Amino acid sequence: xxxxxLSNQKTEEVINWxxxxxxxxxxxxDLFNSFIGQVQKLDISILRSSILVLPLHxxxxxxxxxxxxxxxxxxxxxxxxxxxxxxxxxxxSYIEEMNFAYGGINQDDYKRSPYQKLDDGAPLVHCxxxxxxxSFEFPILEDLKAIGATGYLAIPLxxxxxxxxxxxxxxxxxxxxxxxDIELLKSISTFFSLVLETHVNRYVTETLLKIYxxxxxxxxxxxGIVQKGNIETIEAVIWxxxxxxxxxxxxxxxxxxxxxxxxxxxxxxxxxxxQYHGEILKFIGDAILAVFPVEKDDQRKDICKNVLKAxxxxxxxxAMLNTKRTKLRIPLLDHGIALHQGVVQYxxxxxxxxxxxxxxxxxxxxxxxxxxLCGKTGTQVLVSEKFASYCDDELTLIGTxxxxxxxxxxxxxTIITS
Length: 418
Fold this sequence. Notes:
With about 425 residues, the protein is an alpha+beta fold. The chain is about 40% helix and about 30% strand. The protein has 13 helices and 15 strands. Strands 8, 9, 10, 11, 12, 13, 14 and 15 form an 8-stranded mixed beta sheet that branches. A hairpin with a 3-residue loop joins strand 3 and strand 4. Helix 3 packs antiparallel against helix 7 (about 180-215) and helix 7 (about 180-215) packs across helix 8. The radius of gyration is 28 Å and the shape is elongated.
């Protein structure tokens, strides 16, 4: 890059800001909005800017952050692949954050965009927009012209690993971007990408930990609870549920179909658990282990009642799913849910090279054994006596049972049916 660019005092100020204040920003929108504020000092009139990142997320293929001043309307995005949209409101500007699902890159809108040209190997995309222009290489240019843009520039941002990001700029400067503007924006965009990457990596780390470990468990790992043997004793309601007859289904159903059914089941049960602040720790084959932490003594009754609501809703959701399966003439699904309240050991267990963040203890064993009774008793929900003591008006005793590995016979309860 030309020495004159880096020796420009204002440019140096932007770069110094990136590596001092910029790197301390708490989020990508905060970083991007403040960065644009710094760029505006370089005598390049920025009308609109956006960054596109590919965040290694199992649901989100791409995230786009679009900056614009408050006196301009957002470009309306119409696609079936838009998962979510959020507006970040700043003093003189907005950042529109949009998450897109996988599959969008195969759509015509993407294939006719500057992003596709960059994917095909172009080092950058630069287009000046003339007042009399009526045909455009990319549809986005027509939209930009409508708000007074005179130039467009898209630059790939290289990452040290993973897919690269993209930054795009639009200006209303007379005659658009000139060669010096382009070199300047390329220069500062390169430095911006280094700071952006740290934020993207943080987002990826937090997201993957949350998805693979759970919301609270992921936070604990990020806080440094990573050593083998880092164990904490907590009180919780334990949820253990399991599909019935899954082994038989597996013997008679193709693997891809079976995985689809299993994911469909896990989705509806997970929604019920998470709605009441449960933390799913494991999918064990066709089973789910989850906990609902009890942090204060006066929370036990409310948490137990909420977990019972979650079990009701899980059963209702499974019934609705089976109605659809009946119409499709495919096998119905059934399950058992066991609930217990007690003390567990929560933390890192395993070997030096492979750790699992989970719960262990007699309370977990009891919940697992209770679930095994569901099929034998023909009930969908069974709860321990301790759990039942907080919801006794909604439960009824079905008997006393000896459970393998549990020293004393256990009084077992189920939901009262009308």
